[in-house]
Amino acid sequence: LMDLINEQNLEWTQLVQRQLNELHTLRRQHTKEQCDLLRDLLSDTHKTQSKEINDRHSREKKDLELSQVRQNIEDSKKLEADKSVRSKADLERRVRELKSNNTKKFLEERKRLGFKQQRELDNLTKSHDQQQTILGSEIDKVCIFKTY
Q: Where is this chain compositionally biased, Basic and acidic residues type (predicted)?
């Protein structure tokens, strides 16, 4: 009778131990899957943010170029309509000066916009790198904690 009790006790202990091991393995696997999902979500979010900022930059550049063309046309029309211009040579000289000034101004505006957009992209990239690092360290903490 004692042998039977000891045998059942041993089987019960092994069953409980096996169950605990399986539960621990399932929890570890679930945690790993959640960590992988978090990494994927963060990566997808970063890609979306990068695409949105690039699209916005394209729109801003297009809008700037369009407004510059409009301004150039308006300035040319104003010169054409100006009655104080005495001769055709004077008009041509003023048109050349206007175009030269506009070209310089427009190039500076485009350069400024380019620098601003590059700075935004650099800040976004830096922010993404920091977020990746923080997430990685937090995941490492969770995985180290879960293994004990």
A: 46-65
Burial class, 95, CB count within 10 angstroms (exposed 0-12 / middle 13-18 / buried 19+): middle
The reported pTM is 0.74
- 36 near 77, Cβ under 8 Å? no
**For residue 142, what are the contacts with CB-CB under 8 A and spacing of at least 6?**
31, 35
Residue 93 belongs to what domain range?
2-147
Q: How far apart are CA 7 and CA 96, in angstroms?
A: 105
- In whole angstroms, what is the distance from residue 67 CA to residue 42 CA? 37
Domain tally, the chain: 1
